[in-house]
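Hello,

I think I submitted the hypoxanthine job twice by accident. Can you confirm which output corresponds to this input? Input:
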Amino acid sequence: MTGYNSKGDVATSNGNHRNGHSNGSSSNGDRPADDLAQENQTDNGRIQCSLTPEELRALRVLNEDTYPYEVIQEIADFIVKGAGMRPKIGIICGSGLGSLADIIQDAKIFEYEKIPNFPVSTVEGHAGKLVVGHLEGAIVMAMQGRFHFYEGYPLAKCSMPVRVMKLCGVEYLFATNAAGGINPKFAVGDIMLMHDHVNMLGFAGNSPLQGPNDPRFGPRFPALVNSYNKDLINKALEIGKSMGIESNMHVGVYSCLGGPTYETIAELKALRMMGVDAVGMSTVHEVITARHCDMKVFAFSLITNKCSTEYSDKKDEEANHDEVMSVAKNRQKACCELVARLVREIHAQS
Ligand SMILES: O=P(O)(O)O[C@H]1O[C@H](CO)[C@@H](O)[C@H]1O
Ligand code: HPA
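Support: Only one job matched these inputs. Its output is below.
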């Protein structure tokens, strides 16, 4: 990690910092290594780079789409060592669902900015903290804040924390999200357990697994049928029943679009025709990454808004992030109970 500070800045040998994020104050901004090397060209055309090899490597990592296994291992070691425990269950909190991490006890909290090589959260409702601790007897790690494609991160970077979870020892991924309900039977506040997905970004030729495959994570061509663990879905349905929320629970198909725009009516109609029940801008690339490295996956969507497939002039039928956040806040208690009880079941079985 030589040359890095906690914000992912790269220190040059004269003590200045080159910031890897576009909102940084450094005059160098987040220009790629090639640009920086250009500045150091001498008259005879030979590159005289003032960065050490470690610094150049760090800069490349910040600008690259893929994270080498060794870098992910370093991040995982940092977390496991800092937390003093090895988690078994990983939780990704959806928009407005950060309270899923607040129920973790004896929590060790890592701000994303202080984790070496970690991206930073830029979306409201995504705090940007990694929380490791105990939940219902199990050791869990929760991401209070996920990374979305529309934030400008490549998909491999968006789902890189799933690989970090894997190398921390996580066997189960719980991915949660806020989503628009396309299925006309869904009401705002319902929970849809994901049993499949339609990967719209994949249709457009984009995948978190693009680029060279590292077999230490998984195979070049992973199969995705049965990605969503049936036992966990059934357990969650039982839990929902005992919570008295079975009529607000569904099992369905999620689709991820790139965002940040919400969908047009024509897009919603097309998604419905394809069998999609709920739509959002996340989760699918995390599930792909988790299945690639053989994690068991449980995922659900909290339906924060209804997506009408009819044309209308009514402003209140338009999706907006404030509504998404406020519905999530109102339903956080039920979501927390569902997650906690499922964690308890998994822990009891192990
Ligand atoms: O999927 P999560 O992170 O829950 O967030 C959802 O809410 C935001 C839109 O309101 C989008 O980021 C969408 O993906
Ligand atoms: O309607 C939606 N569309 C896309 N993403 C979303 N996230 C919450 N609601 C929505």
